[in-house]
Every structure is written in structure tokens, then in C-alpha cells.
Amino acid sequence: MLKCSSVSRASVPTGFMGITGNKGGVGISFRFYESTLCFVNCHFASGEAQTQRRNEDYQTIESRMTFTDGINHSYKDYIWYTPTTPNSLAPNAQNPMASTRFWKINDHDIVFWFGDMNYRISLPNDQVRKNLIELSIESLFKKDQLRDEMNQNHAFTDYREPPIDFMPTYKFDVNTDDYDTSEKFRTPSWTDRILYHTKRSIIQHETSNASFQSIIPLHYSCAKTIKFSDHRPVSGLYHVGIKIAYDDKLMNRIRDELIREFDR
User: Fold this and answer.
1) pLDDT value for 119
2) How far apart are CA 118 and CA 48, in angstroms?
3) Where are the alpha helices (DSSP H) in the chain?
4) Low-confidence residues of the chain: pLDDT under 70
5) DSSP 8-class letter at 156
């Protein structure tokens, strides 16, 4: 696509000893018109009592995942070739990649972070299943680990999620609608999520002076008919405000008017 540029990819493992890829995140970064977008797919630590481990997986990916405007380099390059002075834009004099700009996840205008985050419901299994049979899920939201950790700023600070109006997506017996009946008898939970982050939550339209949300959720649900996995896949649809290229004639006119105003 002609309007899509500066494409870059990155990955961060968080599995055993922080080196295996069974857990971690993969991401893609690109510029669409004049907006920068980032999509991160993740798989966090499993286990009902591993909330802190999941937070650490998020923090590791968020801090280490690095994209470039040019060719892909290793994280080692990012460490070695950062500016010599903190908060300085001047590149290291010995940096052979001085023309390359590095991007962190939250440097982007818009970020979508999704995947098997593995956060659970902090309630007894029998109580969760009873509520689900009664279709009473409102009380379960209050014990959702991910929302609790977000509210305490332990993970995904300033990220948002649309309201959940679907049943927990994990764990099912394969090819059935039955929650786990194995020996482990896992507690049903909303492990599969889609979160989003934007630098500017409200956008002001230049010509009409109208304001609107930069990201508007249109759809957030799970696919009930896809049963070959022990998870139910989750999907989302969003209306996203994108910056387009500046109108050079308009910018020049505004510049000239400002110069005349300053002269006066």
C-alpha cells in the first residue's frame, strides 16, 4: 500500500530464563499516512496464581521491544547506540546507524495490544461456573485480574478495553461448549483480550472545529462457533482517526499570516 511506510518488526521472548519463545510478544510498526501504528501480539505466563509473572511479561516486552525506521537491528544495537547524553537527540558519535530512529511501543500514535494474556478470575472455580450457568457475569468482572492490575497501574497503564459482553474464552474441552472437565479443572476466565492506547484520545477537526474520539470501538466479541481450540478467538473492530499529509498551500498561508501578525 502506497500510504503505508516505515515498516518494522520486533520480538521479545519471556519464556524459560527469558530466552525461550513459548511466551513473549511479537510486534509490527508502520506509518500510515502521517500516523504511526503498532500492533503487539503476546502470550503471557499461565497459571491462576501467576498474576505477578504476567505483569512482568508485560513490562519486559514493553521495555525491550524496539522498532526502527530502517533495517531491523538487534536489541543489542539499541543498547549500544543510544545517545550519550540522557534525553538528548544527538546520536552517539561512534554510532554507525546515526540516521536510524528507534521506536518504542508507546512512541507510536496508536497501539493495539492483544493475545493470550492469561489473566484469570480471582474467585473459586465453583462460584465462577455457577455464575456462568446463571448468566450472571457482572460480578465476575470485578474479580478479573487484568482489570484489577490495570486499575492499580501494575500493567497496561493508560490502555483501554471495550466493555466485555461475551462469556469467558478459556478453557474449553476441544470441539465442545463445555468448560474444562479435565483433571486440572481450570477456572473459566477471559484470558484473550484486545487493548488499545492512543497519545491523543480526542481529535479536533481542523475545518469544522468538531471534536471526536481518536479510537471508537465498533465491535468486540468472541467467535462461539470456532471450537477446534481450547480458547475462543476474540475479535475487535475500531474506527481510528488517522493524520493525513499537510496541505502545503494552507500551511504556507497560515505561516504568512503569522509572520504579518508578528510584524504588526
Assistant:
1) 97
2) 8
3) 51-64, 75-80, 125-133, 138-141, 145-151, 248-263
4) 1, 17-21, 70-100, 205-208, 245-248
5) S
Instruction: Please tell me whether the peptide bond between 171 and the residue prior to it is cis, using omega within 30 degrees of 0.
Output: yes
Q: What is the pLDDT of residues 195-221, one digit of tens each?
A: 999 988 887 766 667 788 899 999 999
In the prediction, which pLDDT does 207 show? 66
Q: Can you tell me the distance from the alpha carbon of 57 to that of 217, in angstroms, rounded to the nearest whole number? A: 26
Return the C-alpha cell found at 16: 524459560
Instruction: Count other C-beta atoms under 10 Å from residue 252's C-beta.
Output: 10
- pLDDT given for residue 244 in this prediction: 79
**Would you list the domain boundaries of the chain?**
4-77+104-263
Question: Which residue from 192, 137, 185, 142 is spatially nearest to 170, judged by alpha carbons?
Answer: 192
| Amino acid 99: pLDDT | 57
Report residue 123 as a C-alpha cell: 474467585
Does the structural domain 4-77+104-263 have CATH classification 3.90.1710.10?
no
Given the C-alpha cell 493508560, which residue does it identify? Answer: 158
Q: Which string of DSSP letters, residue by residue, matches 12-68?
A: EE-SGGGT-TTSEEEEEEEEETTEEEEEEEEE---STT-HHHHHHHHHHHHHH-EEE
Check residue 72 and give its pLDDT.
Answer: 46
Q: What is the pLDDT of residue 256?
A: 85
Give the per-residue pLDDT at 88: 41
Backbone angles phi, psi at 104, to 5 degrees: -95, 170
Report the C-alpha gap between 168 and 230 in whole angstroms: 11
Question: Chain centroid to CA 67: how far?
Answer: 15
Closest among 14, 29, 110, 36 to 66, alpha carbons compared? 29
